[in-house]
Design brief:
Structural class: alpha+beta
Number of helices: 1
Strand content: 35-45%
Helix content: 10-25%
Number of domains: 1
Radius of gyration: 14 Å
Distance between the termini: 43 Å
Strand order of the largest sheet: 1-2-3-4
């Protein structure tokens, strides 16, 4: 089993509606090991995370690019230099 610590989060959608979140996280395992990573997860209209056994269906590819751009703009990761 693992529990997740959210370091950063960006969302696609409006408050009061279901929103798709892209999160920078740390997975903490029972054996005390940790792994850095990213995940997609839905947030309900009541502002609660909706875990679905680690899977989040992304209904539109433009949402994916929108979330990645928001994360890049927030400084989560550096883009390689243009050649």
């Amino acid at each position: 089993m693992a529990w997740v610590k959210v370091l950063e989060s960006v969302e696609h959608g409006k408050k009061g509606e279901w929103r798709l979140c892209f999160q920078k996280v740390v997975y903490n395992y029972d054996n005390k090991e940790t792994e850095d990573g990213f995940r997609f997860i839905w947030k309900t209209s009541e502002d609660r995370l909706q875990p679905a056994r680690g899977q989040a269906r992304i209904p539109n590819s433009s949402w994916l690019f929108s979330l990645l751009e928001k994360a890049r703009a927030a400084g989560w990761f550096l883009m390689p230099k243009q050649l």
